[in-house]
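Sample intake sheet
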Amino acid sequence: MLRWILGGRESQSAVEKNTVLFIGEEQPKNSYTELQVLKGHFDIVRFLVQIDDFRFASAGDDGLVLVWNVQTGERLQELRGHSQQVTAMTAYSWSSGSATHTALITASSDRTLSLWDPETGNRVQTVSDLQSSAKCLLVLDRLDLWISGGNELCVWNRDFHLLCKTDHHSDAGITAMVELPKNCVAAAVDKDIVIYRLCVTSSKMDTSIAEIRRLTDHHDSIRALITVSDQMFASGSHTEIKLGSQKQSEMSVQHLASDGECIVAAVGSGLYLYNVSSRSVVAYRKAAHDSSVLHTMLLPDGQLMSCSADGSVRMWELQDLPLPAEPASAGFFGMWTFGRASKHASQQAKKVPEVPGLRTLELTGDLIGHSGAVQMFVNFGDAGLVTCSADHLVIVWKNGERESRARSLALFHKLEQNQGL
């Protein structure tokens, strides 16, 4: 196992002043100039899940699951069945012959798990006798199994048959899970990361699960757990940010995202970009938003997006600095390799890395439309960006120029069909 803590000296130079940026109305690099507001929820919308290239589902504290068409904004299905808030949601796809079927799995505070058909809106399967509500869901596509995590970890097959489960965990329960090689799963349980291994038989009915390792390096509750690559995952917690021998104010690693080469960490109201191969912070913005950053995403060509409890969605671009700067602390998060430990690398990790090529995150777009905390987003590429918020709204942000061309082309074809040209 290998772990790095990001640390160093705070820069007082050209990276930034500790104030939130304001970009104004002129945003030439921001293509999201149109928005479509989707209404249907009656409480905080916390989850968005992409079903396919043109459909997605939203869910939150009202217990509703709504299925939408991202291109038209049409509400396709309304999935009712939970009596309390939805606590987790994921898509579950499997192949049958030449066809691929995609369903939705939801967990709720009413201590039920449900399998939904987004085509018909029917609840296909449900389990209602859980000892506690599930806080996270993980689909193991290769094994055609899925896992729910709460006060216990449960392994299920596609027919919602419980195959095995672990013993009762602490009251904090399992808050996040990621898949690892060799039929293993990493689960965040309060301050610990527990590694489980599944023993799967050909019939799968005799599947068992056992704890094989427990990582106890975090000092506070783990808030984020993600896969970085096939052999690596990262975790983040709520803790004090340490600068040398001094202690700064407490911050939380609210979210982590990775493209395999870099990791972006949402630390308090700031953003920190970490390069995996160099094991160092390559860019940061201490005050990226007015409030805590809740979700992040890395995009191609050195761009990333973030959303915040302040109601904003922001676009950032990685740019070179005019002057050299010093390394910065990115809070407390560990990066782990799944395999044999490297003693030499562990010794290097204790040193403060010197980063001569530290860059900056330049604000290129500010999407203002929500009046409450933006919980997360899903990127549909050319079809747009979808966000959800505490204001009960889902918003689809679209490329204004592309949409204008599409409308003009549609009008031209309509006139041509009606012999108007």
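Comment: Confidence is low (pLDDT under 50) at residues 1-17, 240-249, 340-355. The first strand starts at residue 32 and ends at 38.
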